[in-house]
Design a protein that fits this description.
Layout (H helix, E strand, L loop, with lengths): L1 H16 L5 E13 L12 E17 L2 E19 L5 E3 L3 E14 L7 E10 L2 E5 L2 E4 L3 E15 L3 E19 L6 E21 L4 E15 L13 E13 L2 E11 L8 E13 L2
Antiparallel strand pairs: 1-2, 1-15, 2-3, 3-4, 3-5, 5-6, 6-9, 7-8, 9-10, 10-11, 11-12, 12-13, 13-14, 14-15
């Protein structure tokens, strides 16, 4: 895996040496929802504020006739602030809780050999801004999941408003987790390594009349080995998947609306399929 990471690093250096002519895209959105009630409100409702900030950026370039590189960065963070009523009936603001938290960086190098399928190399890093899994400790950017994959990909069709691509390859994952030892209180980096097969499908569509776009990404991973298989049950052998769908529409100038729906399944975390839905209206600004 170290040799594979070195190859990806060299490709990144090669990209920087040809830094001109990149196709850049970047947008930032901010949504805010607020409910406020007076102190003498007769109902049981309590005030709340929810805010979410999203950033999606990409840089793509045909480096050579045989090499295309695309790097994407997705950032999201949001909090919900709620009021609470104590036993005396007094209302105060509780500590904010996370509603959204994501760091997703991927660099994809595709070898455009004019064949039926194109080989690819990919390096992906996933994390979160704040790790609150331990109530006694807040950790920044933890855990970190690194995925190194190689295989073949195919763009089934690419038109002015539509694009559909598929990827299939072998993948190796390293999960880096800064855990705290219960006895000594010292921090220890725990690394878990597994490997298997990866499948990725990406689709996007632009609605010209509505000034809207739809993006969908399906990712599935089947592990075949795990460095801690002796310490775990067989849940790690189950197929993991994530299906993300985002619909964004410009309503008026910089005001936009968005609908996000995501489903995920990881039996090591939860035995049932998890899902989340976010509907928001806020400010959106495109840098490129």
């Amino acid at each position: 895996m170290k040799k594979f990471s070195l190859i990806l690093f060299l490709l990144a250096v090669l990209s920087l040496s040809h830094a001109e002519g990149w196709k850049l895209a970047s947008d930032l959105s901010f949504t805010l929802t607020q409910n406020q009630y007076s102190d003498n409100w007769a109902g049981s409702e309590l005030s709340n504020i929810t805010w979410v900030a999203n950033s999606n950026s990409s840089a793509e370039k045909q480096m050579f006739d045989w090499l295309n590189n695309k790097t994407t960065l997705k950032l999201a963070f949001g909090q919900t602030h709620l009021q609470k009523r104590d036993t005396a009936g007094d209302v105060t603001w509780d500590h904010p809780t996370k509603s959204t938290d994501k760091i997703d960086l991927e660099s994809l190098s595709k070898f455009t050999l004019q064949a039926w399928v194109d080989p690819y190399l990919s390096l992906r890093a996933e994390s979160q801004f704040i790790d609150e899994s331990d109530a006694t400790l807040t950790r920044i950017v933890n855990p970190i999941l690194l995925t190194e994959s190689a295989g073949v990909m195919k763009t089934l069709w690419k038109k002015e408003r539509d694009e559909l691509s598929l990827r299939l390859g072998a993948a190796f994952r390293e999960k880096l987790d800064r855990e705290v030892l219960q006895l000594s209180g010292d921090r220890e980096m725990v690394t878990t390594v597994d490997g298997g097969a990866e499948f990725v499908s990406e689709f996007k569509h632009i609605f010209l009349l509505m000034d809207a776009n739809f993006k969908s990404k399906f990712w599935a991973y089947q592990a075949v080995f795990n460095s801690k298989s002796d310490e775990l049950n067989d849940d790690w052998k189950t197929v993991d998947f994530v299906w993300e769908n985002v619909l964004t529409a410009k309503l008026w100038k910089i005001v936009s609306g968005s609908l996000t729906f995501e489903m995920r399944y990881d039996k090591e975390q939860q035995t049932q399929v998890q899902w989340k839905q976010i509907l928001g209206v806020g400010v959106n600004y495109s840098f490129f």
